[in-house]
Amino acid sequence: MADPHEPEAAVPGNIGGAPGAANVTNVANAAAEAGQAARPTVLSLSIKEKSALYAAYMPFLKHGGIFVPSSKRYRIGDEIYLILALMDDAHKYPLAGKVAWITPAGANNNKTQGIGLQFPEDESGQRVKARIEEILGAALRSSRATHTL
């Protein structure tokens, strides 16, 4: 079993089924290593293709959300700080959200292991939700499979 204080390695990018479609990295939490009170996990997710964004976006969550591939164990309600990069957008979107979805290892239909992060109700959550929906446009009504439903 992996050391819970050890930073998670980068996951090869295949959020959209294509190599390099997205990359996720867990940033080390120095406070946890020093034995201080646990702070939210910090993750960085870079989505490089529209199809990968469609597969990861979770519009059915209140305030929206995003699927983050990860082999680390999380619980519903865990606080996560995410730095999200969307394709060619020079702006990075920092979000403090909560785990609202878990896809465990070995899930049905070969679903990618990871978590669904619910966007916060604040301005940062509203901004990233609006930006994602602007990028996806009509694709939001598609019936293509995603990493969640």
Q: Can you give a write-up of this model?
A:
With 149 residues, this protein is α+β, with helices and mostly antiparallel strands. It has helices at residues 30-33, 50-56, 123-136, and strands spanning 22-27, 41-47, 65-69, 79-86, 92-103, 114-118. Strands 1-2-4-5-6-3 form a 6-stranded mixed sheet. A hairpin with a 5-residue loop joins β4 (79-86) and β5. The radius of gyration is 15 Å and the shape is globular. The model is unreliable at 1-21 and 27-35 (pLDDT under 50).
List the helices and strands and how they pair.
Blueprint: E1 22-27, H1 30-33, E2 41-47, H2 50-56, E3 65-69, E4 79-86, E5 92-103, E6 114-118, H3 123-136
Parallel strand pairs: 2-4
Antiparallel strand pairs: 1-2, 3-6, 4-5, 5-6
Quick structural overview:
This protein is of the alpha+beta class. It has helices at 30-33, 50-56, 123-136; strands at residues 22-27, 41-47, 65-69, 79-86, 92-103, 114-118.
What brief labels describe this structure?
6 strands, 3 helices, 149 residues, 6-stranded mixed β-sheet, alpha+beta
Tally of strands: 6
Poorly predicted ranges (pLDDT <50, ≥5 residues)? 1-21, 27-35
H/E series: EHEHEEEEH
Percentage beta strand? 25-35%
